[in-house]
Amino acid sequence: MSLDLNAIWFGLIGALFAGYAILDGFDFGVGSLHLFTRTDEERRIMINSIGPVWDGNEVWLVTGGGALFAAFPMVYATAFSGFYMAMILLLFALIFRAVAIEFRSKKPSQSWRQLWDISFSVSSILSGLLIGVALGNIARGIPLDTQYEYAGGFFRLLNPYALIIGITTVALFMMHGAIYLVIKTEGELHDKIREWVNNAIIFFVICYVTTTMATLLYVPHMTETMKSYPVLFVLPILNMLAIANIPREIHHRKDWRAFLSSCASILALLTLFGIGMYPYMIYSLPIPENSLTIYNSASSPKTLKIMLIIALIGMPMVLTYTIAVYRIFRGKVKLEPTSY
Amino acid sequence: MDLLFLSRLQFALTIAFHYIFPPLSIGLGLILAVMEGIYLKTKNPVYQQMARFWVKIFGLIFAIGVASGIVMEFQFGANWSAYSRYVGDVFGSALASEGIFAFFLESGFLSILLFGWNKVGPKMHFFATIMVALGAHFSAIWIIVANSWQQTPAGHHIVGEGLKARAEIVDFWQMVFNPSTVDRLSHTIMGAWQAGAFLVLSVSAFYLLKKKHAEFARASIKIALVIAVFASLMQLVTGHSSAVTLADTQPAKLAAFEAHYSESAPAAMYLFGWVDEKNEKVLSGPKIAGLLSFLVRWDTDKPLTGLRTFPPDKRPPVNFVFQTYHGMVAIGMILILITLVGLFSWWRESLFDKKWFLRILVLSVLGPQIANQLGWFSAEVGRQPYVVYNHLLTAEGLSKTVSMSEVVISLILFGIIYLFLFALFIYMLNEKISHGPSSEDLIIEGHRV
Prior knowledge:
The structure holds 2 protein chains of 2 kinds.
Chain A: H1 5-33, H2 40-50, H3 54-71, H4 73-82, H5 84-103, H6 110-140, H7 160-184, H8 187-218, H9 224-228, H10 234-251, H11 255-277, E1 280-282, E2 292-293, H12 301-328
Antiparallel strand pairs in A: 1-2
Chain B: H1 3-18, H2 22-42, H3 45-79, H4 81-115, H5 122-151, E1 156-159, E2 166-169, H6 172-176, H7 181-209, H8 214-249, H9 251-257, E3 269-270, E4 274-276, E5 281-283, E6 287-288, H10 291-297, H11 318-347, H12 355-364, H13 366-381, E7 386-388, E8 392-393, H14 404-435, H15 439-443
Antiparallel strand pairs in B: 1-2, 3-6, 4-5, 7-8
Helix pairs in contact in B: 1-3, 1-14, 2-3, 2-5, 2-7, 3-4, 3-8, 3-14, 4-5, 5-7, 7-8, 7-12, 7-13, 8-9, 8-11, 11-13
């Protein structure tokens, strides 16, 4: 693995999407768990736990998409036109999530709120599922023609492997969101959610083991780099340790550490995904020659260099005020007149 | 109905719907910063109340702007993948910069704006407001850079041939400051300030007519009117400058705006009219001969490039842009008139007494909205048949893997969902306006830290 501009951008795109998965991941998790709460106040606390931050979290997706467009336009073009209907569905889910958060508590009517609660939860689950299915297909490989255009249909995307990854993603976000909620809530709701964490971990671990087995059996090309560099096995081991650490920290009420472990686990999973894919961006099955790699899909070295400068100037600023905003809104959620 | 038409229709629908919101956030962002600034300086609680009320409206506008904006980020790849491959090297970097420099800033500090009243001090809140307003303006800068490059490509070269051809950056700053960036950016920003200012004028005039929140409304109107006068008058300058650049860089578009066919004649300006594209003439329109030549070249006799210079298949739809362009100009003039009448009445100290004028102000909110849309239709349809002017035809930019039925389904779904969102937006906006500024916000002097 030589470190050139293309490889750096592969890493940076990965970092942007990892940032997205970690941050919007708990938003989706909170949304996925939303309907498990019963009272109106509890549901308002759920929504307001992500109230000040979900919007900024979504910007990671927008920026990731923009960076993909700039650095690997071929991948951007092939993926989003190839996954057209899935992509439109994801957009609708994101629209409904945003609108549900904004409008739910604006009227006292019970049926109004019930409608938006369902919309919030379903769109959150659907978003996680679709993102996972897309990742699953990219890992497994999709048929590309010699022009690097997707040569399958919508239903081809709904294969068992991709669906397993989709469900795993939902489970991961649920676990992540539950831990986040433990930090942000207090009282009865807090105690209830603390119990959900364990269930979510079990759900996630079952999915994770299934995913790992399925990958080893059916998607051998994802494991090749790992075979050539056995030292990389340290990653799945660290990942396992991070996951195992979560119930331990939750038990000792070190909720922040549990959350960091969950973040580490998401990061490790995406790193494993990146290592498995490298140097491919979209793997072509059954004809690997038509694959999009970090070289045949990239922008010119000049653009990659300009973009690198932009990222180096911009991202430290982004991180600074992201951290500042999280600090300002730290602590347990309190409902106020300006809350959702 | 073919795939090209439906894909363009979908793009037009999604961008036009989205574009209701960003100009409002840009204009309202500026006004919010002014309101909070005045509050910090004067400590008059009415400005605090104002800021708190308009922040709520801002939040609503922003939410739908984000929800509809995310569609735009991915639609290039989804429906226009050949275009995306062609322009990615150039266009993508502007789009990514928008994310890094604008959206993060805007959405990060927005949370402080909406929910931070009791968590940060008034100065920090003011700072957050400025950052949100800046972020909104930055996003305009980068998206206009990207769009202007499509209008007047510069700073790039073409690599490869046929299907493999694509644009690559040679000079980043030349790409950023391509010939039309500055003109189009200033014209767009002024349009956005108008959108924000006229919204405030409209709502405040409504309160005065209803004899509610009088002090709040009067102070709001004064702030908004100053910005509205400035922005409306500036549209003369920025619009003029845009036209001069157009004459040099996109002559077919300018010629289509005034249906100027003749290759070597001075160009006239019409007040209104209807273009008979088949016979290449304007039916029944009052015109001033040589005025376009005069405005662009300072000489009524100077010829301007006419549409006949271009083969018929390389001309934009003439009557369509003729109508949208003249609609925009007409509304622009009316808005100038309204703001000048407002200024005059303010000077005569009768601004808040004339019922007829307040009624006009209530309706005036539609003016910038319609003019902004018409302006964009003129700019984008006027570039046709190209998606990247003189480089790539719109028809060549389509995705090859997306089928007619897929676009039909997505178009119908977008239509239904956006109609629903729009109804919801108007409904909630109406609720907030009827509720009005909260009297509790008036009592709180300064913030708890």
